[in-house]
């Protein structure tokens, strides 16, 4: 299948419905987690405005370990409960952070980042990892982003065979 970049417009609800439909088509027929996470990170990077990092951390060896992403080099390992990613993994609740500098224990991989959203990836009760998106714009993410990106993770889970993750 070839991928054709398209401009996704409209209100955030419409934007995310179109983005998630595009993700569904992009991942159709592929179940490898590395390939699908790489394409998902790229799709986010292409379509989300005012972001400077989009990618995944995977739960392995009792910590979050850097997975496929788009952006500057990032922190490789994040302990459970540390920073925004570690907090999302520990609580299993999406974290929407309007000002990362006000977040206790924030891990600054890129000094330009000002806001962040992190969505836990769960299969049943099993923690798989997190989707992490940073922005240089304060208060970039809101409830509509949370809902849209939680649905994005649901589409990922539909296509990925997580049992193959080492």
From TrEMBL:
UniProt cross-references to InterPro entries, sorted A to Z: FRMsr_CS, GAF, GAF-like_dom_sf, Phosphatase_reg/MetRdx
Domain of life from the UniProt record: Bacteria
Every GAF domain range: 32-166
Pfam family, any one: GAF
Family, similarity comment: Belongs to the free Met sulfoxide reductase family.
Protein name in UniProt: GAF domain-containing protein
Species the sequence originates in: Tumebacillus lacus
